Amino acid sequence: MDFYYWRSNFQVNESEKKVVQDLKVENIYIRFFDVDKTDIQPKPIGTIKNFNASVLNVNYIPTVFITNRTFQSLSSEEVKKLAANVNKLINEIAFASELKSFSEIQIDCDWTKSTKANYFLFLEELKKISDKKLSATLRLHQVKYKDKEGVPPLNKMVLMCYATENPTEVEEKNSILDVEIAKNYLQNLEQYPFQLDVALPIYSWAIVTNHLGKVKLINSFSKDDLKDKPVIDKGNGIYEVTEDFFLEKFYLSKGFKIKVETISEDVLKETISFLDSKLKNDYRIIYYHLDEKFTQNYNLKNL
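Structure (tokenized):
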């Protein structure tokens, strides 16, 4: 059992340390930074702060999220330069954080048919210059449409078994993980050309809808965040605002709807059971993500 660590400020409290110890966590996939094309050139953003590798006795795997648009309209030389820059910054952060050695790098990118050539070239170049084992994430649609969207030139991938719907477009279903939708995407999972590990969600968020139907997403949010707030519980995770107030820097007016989406242990168990029927290898589960706000709600030993 492994975890992602996705917060920008590295701060692990005693409860989180106990989770790592009790569950005998071996690997932490730690987000070092994101890359986005904010103007003309790709740039790092959201670089992790205060990371100290000595805090947890685990194997750290530096992880980098890269937006799909970053790979649009880049020349081959620009792609190779991007790989060199990513590798350089990873090593700089590792050195500054007393991460003396690491054997793997993971790249997280929701690539598409139009960007696969540049993305796959990036992976090949990064693997070559880093001299590390390289893994990458795999979205549900990239499994279902692998013939169109391609298979990365790697031998290790992590299937992200969540984000089954767009949270700003869906109303009734759980946009984090709807098992039936996931099954549809993964009906031919056993045909994927190499072994996979699996990432499962243990996070929650809020979807806020105003009077005009416009939607805002509040990440890292739970029902506890609505305690003592002027809302009415309408059931099924839906709340209605009864008085104007601020919530996570958002100004909410009377009548706004708040939908809090969470993932139950039963949903996780059903998902794992389905994956067991499809994946014949002994896959590792990586939970997204290590945060007391979420880990306290699950008995992960029993999953």
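The first helix runs from residue 14 to 22. The helical segments are 14-22, 76-96, 116-130, 140-144, 146-149, 179-185, 265-278, 292-295.
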